[in-house]
TrEMBL record:
SUPFAM superfamilies the UniProt entry points to: DNA/RNA polymerases (SSF56672)
Species of provenance: Iris pallida
Ranges where the Integrase zinc-binding domain occurs: 153-207
PANTHER family in alphabetical order: PROTEIN CBG26694, PROTEIN NYNRIN-LIKE
Listed name of the protein: Polyprotein
Length: 217
């Protein structure tokens, strides 16, 4: 993005073929609309270039950990304000370890310990019953590989972070649910996510109307 502000004319190559038509397609979703509003003021051309034909791809695009090695201080400060601590160590010029710790995760773990129903299920698991609950190496209880979130307030906080934070762009309920279910679990998650997104004022204000305008009666 920085290049768009420096140079007057830009020719951008992408291995995502459908991006060629992003400026001409008739129907766009909310996320595409925000990107178009940002890009409309730049003089740029999008050209498709197959990924397999790009033999000398930028190393940074292939190594996601390199991002953290040059993370701007502003982003690190934002993460700190969000209660997220980034811990890393570098040995002999090699990236060795990256760990993200969130106070939200700690509070979820604490809530698990105080939830009598979940603790009873864990006792059944320890007794040899198949409950689907297991204990992670960090002490948290998980359903499969997903962190169990029992508290209603914590569920709301998880959804707010996934939908309203500085590093998310108000995803729709389907996208948000798919993202959250990779890490978290609770009964009725899909329904709660849909309800949360439907009540977002920002989403309501920028929601596109795809139906034709009704005629006069």
């Amino acid at each position: 993005m920085e290049a768009l502000f420096i140079w007057r004319e830009n020719q951008i190559y992408t291995d995502h073929k459908s991006l060629k038509y992003v400026f001409t397609q008739k129907k766009i979703n909310m996320r595409q609309r925000r990107w178009l509003q940002l890009l409309k003021d730049f003089d740029m051309e999008l050209e498709y270039h197959p990924g397999k034909a790009n033999k000398v791809a930028d190393a940074l695009s292939r190594r996601p950990e390199a991002f953290f090695m040059n993370t701007p201080k502003e982003i690190l400060e934002d993460l700190r304000k969000m209660g997220i601590e980034v811990i890393y160590s570098i040995t002999e010029g090699m990236w060795q370890n990256l760990q993200v710790q969130s106070s939200l995760i700690d509070r979820i773990k604490e809530a698990q310990q105080n939830d009598s129903n979940l603790q009873e299920i864990w006792k059944q698991t320890e007794a040899g019953l198949q409950t689907g609950i297991r204990k992670h190496s960090n002490g948290s209880l998980r359903f499969g590989d997903r962190l169990c979130v029992l508290s209603g307030n914590l569920r709301t906080e998880v959804m707010a972070e996934a939908h309203n934070s500085q590093y998310s762009i108000h995803p729709g309920s389907t996208k948000m649910y798919k993202d959250l279910k990779q890490t978290f679990w609770w009964h009725g998650m899909k329904r709660e996510v849909a309800r949360f997104v439907s009540r977002c004022l920002v989403c309501q204000q920028v929601k596109l109307e795809h139906q034709r305008t009704a005629g006069l009666l």
